[in-house]
Amino acid sequence: MKDQCENAGFIDSVHKIKLSLAAMAEGSVQDVSSLKTELRNIEESILVESYKFKFLQVTKARSSYVDHPALLGNAVATAFPSSIPDMKEAGNCLAAECNTAAVFHLMRVVEWGLRALCADVGLIRLRSKTKAGKVRYTPISFTDWEHMLNQLQGRVDSKVNRIRRGKLKQTAQEFYYPALQDIRSIRDAWRNHVMHTRRDYGTEEANAVLAHVQRLMATLASRVSE
């Protein structure tokens, strides 16, 4: 009980439990009646302290989302460990019905997949030119989706075109091109709007985004990783 109260932040109740334990150790609690009194006092302390807090009720349908580190599946968590904090936050936001916040964190999960896809084709820095005409290279972690996707397309085309016609080429085409299209669709449908405060989302919409992101990240995890 003391550990549970400490975890919940019930400081006054922890003190009361410690005093009761000390009284028991000293022999002050010598019979069942005294023990019942101590337990009743502890119970009252917990009840009084609970009024200082606000509690959130999570529906049964969303209870499994709470503190879930592999919200999009174990394969995704294994392939993209950096996305785990955002998956966990997305799940907690869904459980709390903070749907717009959940969509925000799901977009961050997709970015981890996008970066891994870039690295898979050797795109770890983006090439650009300054106004003075000098070439500048920027790590993909410091660039936006638009520039990543623009340069990623050429890298994917180059990689696929180098593969001889046959099953391997077909497999590559079936993986890379739908993935690129999916990420572009996510950018245009949700990412840009939620990042720039142009849109709020309800339960059904957040569920739809979750399902879409889950499919994409599972597909990416089947072939690429951090």
Rg from Cα:
26 Å
Structural class: mainly alpha
Runs in which pLDDT lies below 50 for 5 or more consecutive residues are none
| Mean of pLDDT | 92
Shape, per Cα inertia axes: elongated
Q: Enumerate how many helices there are, as a single number.
A: 9
Question: Layout of SSEs?
Answer:
Layout: H1 2-8, H2 11-26, H3 32-50, H4 74-79, H5 84-95, H6 99-120, E1 125-129, E2 135-139, H7 145-161, H8 167-195, H9 203-221
Task: Tag the structure with descriptive keywords.
single chain; 226 residues; mainly alpha; 2 strands; 4% strand; elongated
Brief synopsis:
By secondary structure, the protein is mainly alpha-helical. It has helices at 2-8, 11-26, 32-50, 74-79, 84-95, 99-120, 145-161, 167-195, 203-221; strands spanning 125-129, 135-139.
Structural notes for this entry:
A hairpin with a 5-residue loop joins β1 and β2 (135-139). The chain is built from nine helices and two strands; from the N terminus they run ααααααββααα. α6 (99-120) runs antiparallel to α8. The protein is elongated, with a radius of gyration of 26 Å. By secondary structure, it is mainly alpha-helical. It has helices at residues 2-8, 11-26, 32-50, 74-79, 84-95, 99-120, 145-161, 167-195, 203-221; strands at 125-129, 135-139.
